[in-house]
Write a structure and sequence with these properties.
By secondary structure, this protein is mainly beta. The chain has helices spanning 6-9, 132-145; strands at residues 13-14, 21-29, 34-41, 50-52, 56-68, 76-81, 85-88, 92-110, 115-120, 126-131. It has a single domain (18-145), classed as Jelly Rolls. The protein has two helices and ten strands, in the order H-E-E-E-E-E-E-E-E-E-E-H.
């Protein structure tokens, strides 16, 4: 019998347009403008280049969380194994990926003026800003999927 893992028990929502990249919003706190969220990366899958606008705390729950430079997707910044906790004060740009076994991470993000992150297009121009309200919509989508 295969033991249950967090990755196998969460009702994941796929990020639209990104095979192998999933999320599950745990909480949106209007009082402090924070978002608590799980992300799951299938093996070797990466997300788009983006910048976290405000402070972020990350805990790797399963697998390996890999960070690449935003302007050079081949240049490794960090490899974080399960159990690794990191934090930064915001204004950090990178590309995140799952290692050979994928990754499940907990993100605790604080907004600045209601904004959580901005994503970049292939020329590293901002093409979308994700605000607290976007994550609140994610909570509603999860509730509707139950």
């Amino acid at each position: 019998m295969t033991p249950k893992t967090l990755a196998s028990t969460v009702n994941w929502i796929q990020f639209p347009g990104f095979d192998g990249l999933y999320y599950y919003v745990l909480e949106v706190d209007d009082k402090d403008g924070s978002v608590e969220m799980l992300m799951k990366f299938d093996p070797g899958v990466s997300c788009v280049p983006h910048r976290h606008i405000g402070p972020v705390k990350t805990l790797v729950l399963e697998g390996e969380h890999i960070i690449y430079k935003v302007d050079d997707p081949g240049e490794l910044v960090d490899r974080r194994e399960a159990g690794t906790y990191t934090s930064h004060g915001g204004d950090e740009a990178h590309i995140e990926a799952g290692g050979p076994e994928g990754a499940v991470i907990l993100l605790s993000m604080t907004s600045i003026e209601g904004n959580i992150w901005e994503t970049y297009d292939h020329e590293l121009r901002v093409d979308r800003i994700s605000a607290v309200e976007d994550f609140r919509r994610g909570l509603r989508k999860q509730a509707a999927a139950k």
